[in-house]
Amino acid sequence: MSELSEKKQQQTEPFYAKSAEETLTALHSQAEGLSDQEAAARLEQYGPNELEAGKKTTILQKFLEQFKDLMIIVLLVAAIISAVVSHEAVDAAIILAVVIINAIMGVVQESKAEQAIEALREMSTPNANILRSGHSKSVSSHELVPGDIVLLEAGDVVPADMRLLEISSLKIEEAALTGESVPVEKDLTVLEGTDIGIGDRVNMAYSNSNVTYGRGKGVVVNTGMNTEVGKIAGMLANADETETPLKRNLNQLGKFLTIAIIIIAVVMFFVGTLINNQSWVDMLLTSISLAVAAIPEGLPAIVTIILALGTQVMAKRNAMIRKLPAVETLGATDIICSDKTGTLTLNQMTVEKLYFDGTQFAADEEIAKDNLAIKLMNYANDTKFSKEGDLIGDPTETALVQFGLDKGFDVRQEGKAEPRVADLPFDSDRKLMSTIHQLADGTFLVAVKGAPDVLINRSTKIYQGGKEISLDETQKTAILENNKNMAQQALRVLGVAYKIMPTLPDERTSEVIENQLVFTGLIGMIDPERSEAAEAVRVAKEAGIRPIMITGDHRDTAEAIAGRLGIIKPGDDDAVLTGAELNNLSEAEFANKVTQYSVYARVSPEHKVRIVKAWQNAGKVVAMTGDGVNDAPALKQADIGVGMGITGTEVSKGASDMVLADDNFATIVVAVEEGRKVFSNIQKAIQYLMAANLGEVLTLFIATILAWDTLLPIHLLWINLVTDTFPAIALGMEPAEKNLMAHKPRGKKSNFFSGGVLSSIIYQGILEAATVLFVYWSAIQWPAHTADNMIGLSAAQLYDLQHGDALTMAFATLGLMQLFHAFNVKSVHQSLFKVGFFKNKAFNYAILLSFVMMMIIIVVPGLNDIFRVTHLDTYQWGIVLGSSFAIIPVVEIVKAIQRAMGKE
Questions:
Q1: Dist CA 820 CA 838 (whole Å)
Q2: Rounded to an integer, what distance in angstroms lies between the CA atom of residue 303 and that of residue 102?
Q3: How far apart are alpha carbons 608 and 863 in whole angstroms?
Q4: Burial class of 814 by CB neighbour count within 10 A (0 to 12, 13 to 18, 19+)
Q5: Which of 145, 254, 475, 851 has a CA that sits 20 to 30 A from residue 641's CA?
Q6: Distant-in-sequence, close-in-space partners of 441: CB < 8 Å, separation ≥ 6
Q7: Taking Cα atoms as reference points, which of 224, 286, 200, 326 lies closest to residue 10?
Q8: Are strands 546-550 and 335-339 parallel, antiparallel or unpaired?
């Protein structure tokens, strides 16, 4: 713990379980506030009310981080060996250039990856209204200390964690911290217990939450890093960086290549020195050159380019990638842990049911605009309209006004004829609010909305059939049954009632105004699920991905929404776990039961991290979506964090690997498909490169044993530059294969060689080597140039000509065969005729460009001298083209056999 952290340790006792007097005593404070001298002393003791800055990584540090991967280290070693031992400066320069370009691309993409804590720091409100020695004053929120008395009003941002001392209809919106979409009605009641979730601590106000209604006064209990937001910042700072599947796979590939290269070099050295009796110095250099040739030096850059191309595709589909490896990680996702509010739902309270005149209506049914219930819900309402026409106020009340507007009832116009002349504001004790309107005949309409059970007890009549009738037990039972029915659907239910008063009473109290009412109807509201979310959940399940809902909302609400989305079966209570119940499970117990639960309700940030870790410990790749401050630690802990671009806080975006620009849960399923495509395309590029390099290594290895001089270093360098790079990059732009989302996630244990890729590399590499060696041998055995048609040439000159032709044919065959083979790797198992030869335009251009570059150095005079190749006649080109193309039908036959054996 840092010195600053030690200095700022504050009380951690549950103040929600203490009375106001006990809290003030524990904090050595009083209702009039601290004196300026005491506040200054405490500021020195606890430090400013701000979050500690996280560790900042310099550009140089980020650049050096790029060189920690084993694959990069292998390449650097190869470059050093090429330059120092083999004296191949060109090879070394190319390898170094590739590595440096790859590192630069990584730094550029990740330069903004660590801004979460900075965003938290920027969220702090600049000023706070406080009491000091009984006098009100405004101070910087950074100067607040435990024991300060803070005054709150609608529109304020709560500047620190506080125990409330006084309230007047106070409501605070805590969605960013708790995930609960509805503002919390605050209460001064002392709570019992020491394990109450943040969302249920109704006598507390927390830093960075927003006051939406009423007024209040509270005493600061914690500041800075000791606030709930500060604890989240600490969790972010201490969260371990998870290793992505891509990084694991590249490290595995690096280890595999290292071992293979060492074996190749050793075998080559002993074969040359012991069997062919060659100089050990020459064989050492040959072995090292061969080992360096086995390195696919362009692979890291090609992988980076394919990932970058994937980010561009995702950006067009509203998925913004902040870290390159996240593209591929998405494709491996087993679990999507999603926040409910604003992610699976709209984060917008909406009227869904209306009970009126003995009938329950759905919100989308035809309802007349002069419906009395609609009028009352709009009149008993404090919603305001902005100049632009936007609704401003409590989300529940704005939902009622929006419902009226949808049905043609504009409270602005209707209220002109029946103006509001008085009101009784909402009070959490009586659970009602009323407004009084003067009617055209001089009487007064009292519009009341509030808790249904309270309204029933205060009503003597019911509006039914267009008239007022006596409210009897039968009608009460019907109202209560409809109330229960809506509540079981996780709807928030309000009742509306009214009465007509001949005159405006002098005493406007609840006892006078809110009695002898005429009960009119019930309104059921909910933060509804996104229209496309259910389909996204279905597609995810078909892809073998399990959606998990994690929310700070109540159990019933979470269960209902999850049932409607298809995350669980409706009414499957056993699949739901609350944060309090999770606290009672040990790590071992939870590990055994984690697969049982698909919905978590009333959870804290610590719970979310624990859930993500439990699935990770079970060997799953976990994606976590969220938009609030409370989601940030889990977003950072997850294998891939997915933030919301519109409603998401800067904190959640900063902790994420990917941000959804449209806040649409369905977009993540699209991104998963793209991630799977990216992994598949990287596999194709690796299969292509490794098969080509294996073919080259085997060709040189066998030729060395046979004392053949088949390929020169410059030939290998040109082939690796021309035929490896462009087609491999173009393979990264291949469209997704059909039924890509019908397969289960590949899991953490899979790698680039899984799914038949390794066996394909081996047999295809052997096939390439065998073909090249056969072409070289046949060109020597049946040369186009003989003593009969080359009269006048010496034997040595004739041999040089014959060998030059054989060397050129081997070089051309290897290069062109790799281009033809690029068509084979469009799919590991599917037929090329099914995948399509020319669907990928970028691939077609890449093959054409590579072909032209291969041909130029053979047919253009001057260049063929530099590359020590000869002009070939029609017969020789026929051999080259026929042998090169042969790899396509051979691989097609192997694929057909594999499909027949069920290896797909």
A1: 13
A2: 9
A3: 64
A4: buried
A5: 254
A6: none
A7: 224
A8: parallel
The single-letter DSSP state of residue 196 is: -
C-alpha distances in angstroms, 181 versus 300, 346, 492, 651, 672? 45, 9, 12, 18, 27
- Helix (H) / strand (E) element for 127: namely strand 127-132
CA distance 432 to 806: 96
Catalytic residue among 200, 334, 339, 553: 339
Q: Hey, which residues does 437 pair with through a beta bridge?
A: 420, 445
Kindly report, residue by residue over 649-670, the tens digit of the pLDDT.
666 777 788 888 877 778 888 8
Q: State the Cα angle at 273 between 270 and 278, rounded to 5°.
A: 150
Strands (E), 189-295: 204-205, 210-222
What lies within 8 Å, CB to CB, of 799 at 6+ separation is none
Distance, C-alpha 789 to centroid of its chain: 70
**In terms of residues, how long is the chain?**
904
3-state secondary structure of 301: helix
Which residues lie closer than 8 Å to 180 by C-beta, 6 or more apart? 174, 199, 341, 551, 552, 553, 554
Strand partners, 424: 434
* DSSP H helix total and E strand total for the chain: 36, 26
Helix runs in 602-664, H state only:
605-617, 632-637, 650-654
Q: Where are the alpha helices (DSSP H) in 430-532?
A: 452-458, 473-488, 510-513
Choose among 189, 172, 188, 207: nearest CA to 50.
Answer: 207
Please, which residues have CB within 8 angstroms of residue 414's CB and are 6 or more apart in sequence?
A: 375, 378
Average pLDDT, the chain: 82
- Decide: 142 and 50 in contact? Cβ < 8 Å: yes
CA separation for the pair 495, 376 (Å, rounded): 10
β-partners of residue 385 are: 391
Query: In this structure, what token pair is assigned to residue 197?
Result: 């979730």
Per-residue burial over 747-765, b if 16 or more Cβ lie within 10 Å, else e, is: ebebbbbebbbeebbeebb
Whole-number Cα distances in Å, 324 to 241, 307, 321, 347: 15, 6, 7, 30
Burial group, residue 619, by CB count within 10 angstroms (0-12, 13-18, 19+): exposed
Q: How far apart are CA 351 and CA 401, in angstroms?
A: 10
Which of 314, 312, 306, 253 minimizes the C-alpha distance to 680?
306
Neighbours of 258 (CB within 10 A): 17
Phi, then psi, of 593 in degrees rounded to 5: -110, -5
Question: What is the longest distance spanned by two Cα atoms in the chain?
Answer: 131
Based on the number of CB atoms within 10 Å of its own CB, is 700 exposed (0-12), middle (13-18) or buried (19 or more)? buried
18, 118, 139, 149, 225 from 130: Cα distances, Å: 22, 26, 7, 5, 21
Summarize the chain as % helix, strand, coil (round to 5): 50, 15, 30
Residue 160 DSSP SS3: coil
What is the tens place of the pLDDT at every residue in 207-254?
878 888 888 999 999 998 888 888 777 766 665 555 566 666 666 776
User: Residue 164, SS3?
Assistant: strand
For the chain, give the percent of residues with pLDDT over 70: 82
Q: Please provide the DSSP assignment of 647-698 as one string.
A: S--HHHHHT-SEEETT--HHHHHHHHHHHHHHHHHHHHHHHHHHHHHHHHHH
Beta-strand ranges (E) seen in 155-309 are: 161-173, 184-185, 204-205, 210-222
Give the per-residue pLDDT at 598: 94
Structure tokens that stand for 787 in this block? 């003593």
Q: Quick check: 224 and 46 in contact, CB under 8 A?
A: yes
Strand partners, 599: 549, 576
Tokens of 311: 């980010």
427 belongs to the catalytic site: no
